[in-house]
TrEMBL record:
GO terms for molecular function: carbon-oxygen lyase activity; chorismate mutase activity. Residues 7-97 form the Chorismate mutase domain. Its EC number is 5.4.99.5. InterPro entries: Chorismate_II_sf, Chorismate_mutase-related, CM_dom_sf, CM_II_prokaryot, Isochorismate_pyruvate-lyase. The lineage of its organism: Bacteria, Pseudomonadati, Pseudomonadota, Alphaproteobacteria, Sphingomonadales. Gene3D superfamilies: Chorismate mutase (1.20.59.10). Transmembrane segments: none annotated. One of its GO terms (biological process) is salicylic acid biosynthetic process. PANTHER family: CHORISMATE MUTASE. This is chorismate mutase.
Amino acid sequence: MTTILAGPDCTTMAEVRAGVDQVDRELVTLLARRFAYMDAAARIKPVRGAVRDEDRKAQVIANAQAAAEAAGLPGDAIAALWEQLVETSIAYELAAFDRR
């Protein structure tokens, strides 16, 4: 098993790629957890129209942007990623709602 080094400790591209691949696996695991909440929301919300909540969407994106900026990451780019994540989550939740 390859030891995954922290980014600053990497000295080769193989080490960088191994780290990136590990982080990607962890992100997919976290996304699965997030989408399980979308399943729960689809089960809990009483009507399909309640799935899309633009105020909540704006809050989630703003929270991600602020957290990114606090971590020294580009806030606008993270906000764009979260826009896509939230829209994908809404589509997933709508499909889950329709299946119930």
